[in-house]
Design goal:
The protein is of the alpha/beta class. Helix content is 43%, strand content 12%. The chain has three domains: 7-144 and 158-172 and 217-277, 3-Layer(aba) Sandwich (Rossmann fold); 298-410, no CATH class; 417-470, no CATH class. It has helices at residues 42-60, 87-95, 99-116, 132-146, 172-177, 218-230, 247-259, 292-297, 302-310, 322-343, 352-363, 368-379, 386-399, 408-411, 422-437, 441-453; strands at residues 7-10, 15-18, 27-31, 65-69, 147-150, 153-156, 191-196, 214-216, 234-240, 266-272, 275-276, 318-319, 456-458, 468-470. The strands form five sheets. A four-stranded parallel β-sheet has the order 4-3-9-10, sandwiched between helices. Strands 5-6-7-8 form a four-stranded antiparallel β-sheet. A two-stranded antiparallel ribbon has the order 1-2. Bound molecules: adenosine monophosphate (AMP) and zinc ion (ZN). Residues 32, 34-35, 43-44, 46-47, 72, 239-240, 242-243, 272, 274-275 line the site of adenosine monophosphate.
């Protein structure tokens, strides 16, 4: 390991802990993945910017990493507990489409989101539906001692494991008060291991099991896939803060039942806080919701969204607003501009301290807002040189802003409803420069007004060297 000790906040102990890998030759991380019944909203993507920052930090520290992000293509109900419809089945019915085609389409879209956000492709992206046989085996193993059968499936008795809900802590009761009652459940917290298809109903996705034809409960897939790909004991399990209350306590209970011991599976449980949108546009139930594609339509580069996430600590709530996003895009442009200028310099400058400061920030429970300011301080230093460029690009191994590749031209994203093209804008700006050179200011102003009417803001003397931007 290099640099400062890595300290991470563990939701299980509610304390910041120095991270010591179980096996320094292979750090193992599991992140709860998306439910692929629709596009990811930008809030979901905050969860993966967080896990990517964690993954990049582990590698920055010099540890090899195995990272698993599962794809939930079955079992997730409209409520995180056992109520409501299966999200996948409901989407297939509503769209009149084949459920497998829906799963494939949104899985591909999710992978494209990861690529657009410069998220390092996880080592494994396993599908839940590829592991149903293993989920049934798991159920068979724990059924006698830990489960009971009701007409609608096999349920886990949460009183059979030690310390159920330790992860959820004080929030426990509040979360479970929201769980809709299922007739016959022994405790409100009990959850489905297997849900039998009700008589007279057909599902597009169903399998035979000792508890009837049906589908696995959602929580089971993560226990099965994390153990399969990472082993019985692994380092870190991540998810959004909502998973701290129901999904992760249930995974822990299943793990304990399976090993017949008190082991929780992962040593560290980490949770990102939510991206919130006061306008209510983010929620998928609001109809039109905020996807990465919508941000691009409005003229924002996906990496501006990544930087916006880094502006907040992952355990703080982050408010989405177009102003925040615009501010993040300006910060990104500045960094890209600095890299472009640094490339043109050959002088060497001192940069010894900034990398250490950056390391200290990121090692302190992934303090990205502070790490970002160290990168910016380095970028805005006066005596540019190769060392600074090296250091900045080294920091970008953690920030993931792709500073070695993107250019200011890449960042000039065209809003979907813009009608004027870049060549026309450049031609008119040339005309305007000629008018100014000839001191024909009325003509110069007229051209600027024409451009403004077409949604182009002319930026004279912009410190970043941008002549114009689209304002639509
Ligand atoms: P889902 O596709 O619903 O299974 O969620 C995928 C991931 O996104 C999970 O880790 C959730 O906890 C997380 N998540 C959901 N909503 C938000 C949000 N608004 N902000 C941050 N993370 C979220
Ligand atoms: Zn999960």
């Amino acid at each position: 390991m290099t640099g400062a000790p890595l300290v991470l906040y563990n939701s299980l102990t509610r304390a910041a802990e120095t991270f010591r890998p179980l096996d320094p030759a292979n750090v193992r991380v599991y992140s709860c993945g998306p439910t692929v019944y629709n596009y990811a909203h930008v809030g979901n993507l905050r969860a993966y910017v967080f896990t990517d920052t964690l993954a990049r930090t582990i590698r920055w520290k010099g540890w090899p990493l195995t990272h698993v992000v599962n794809i939930t293509d079955v079992g997730h109900l409209t409520s995180d507990a056992d109520a409501g419809d299966d999200k996948m089945e409901a989407a297939a019915r509503a769209q009149g489409r084949d459920i497998w085609a829906i799963a494939r389409h949104y899985t591909d879209a999710f992978k494209q989101n990861l690529a657009d956000l410069n998220i390092v492709t996880p080592t494994h992206l396993p599908l839940a539906t590829d592991h149903v046989a293993e989920m049934i085996e798991w159920g068979v193993r724990i059924a006698d001692k830990h489960c009971y059968q009701l007409a609608d499936g096999l349920y886990f008795d949460t009183s059979t494991v030690p310390d159920y809900g330790r992860l959820a802590g004080a929030a426990d009761d509040a979360a479970h008060a929201r769980i809709d009652a299922v007739a016959g459940k022994r405790h409100p917290q009990d959850f489905a291991i297997w849900r039998a298809t009700p008589p007279g109903e057909t599902r597009q996705m169903e399998w035979d099991s000792p508890w009837g034809r049906g589908a696995p409960g959602w929580h089971l897939e993560c226990s099965v896939m994390s153990r399969k790909y990472l082993g019985a004991a692994f380092d870190i399990h991540t998810g959004g803060i909502d998973h701290r209350e129901i999904h992760h306590p249930n995974e822990i209970a299943q793990n304990q039942a399976y090993c017949d011991c008190a082991d929780t599976g992962a040593t560290l449980w980490m949770h990102n806080n939510f991206l919130v949108d006061r306008t209510g546009k983010m929620s998928k139930s609001s109809g039109e919701f905020l996807t990465l594609a919508r941000l691009v339509d409005r003229g924002f580069h996906p990496l501006a969204y990544r930087l916006m996430c880094l502006q907040a600590h992952y355990r703080s709530e982050l408010e989405f607003s177009w102003e925040n996003l615009a501010a993040a895009q300006v910060r990104l442009k500045r960094l890209v501009h600095a890299v472009e200028r640094l490339r043109q310099q050959s002088a060497r400058g001192a940069q010894i301290h900034s990398l250490d400061q950056f390391d200290l920030a990121i090692s302190n429970d992934l303090n990205t807002p502070l790490a970002l300011t160290h990168a910016e301080a380095l970028a805005s230093g006066r005596d540019f040189g190769a060392d600074r460029l090296d250091a900045l690009l080294k920091m970008d191994e953690v920030l993931g802003l792709d500073l070695s590749t993107i250019t200011r031209a890449t960042l000039r994203v065209r809003p979907a409803d813009a009608t004027i093209d870049a060549n026309t804008i450049e031609a008119r700006l040339t005309e305007r420069r000629e008018a100014r050179a000839a001191k024909d200011f009325p003509r110069s102003d007229a051209i600027r007004d024409d451009l403004a009417a077409a949604g182009v803001e002319v930026m004279d003397g912009d410190p970043l060297g941008w002549d114009w931007k689209l304002t639509i």
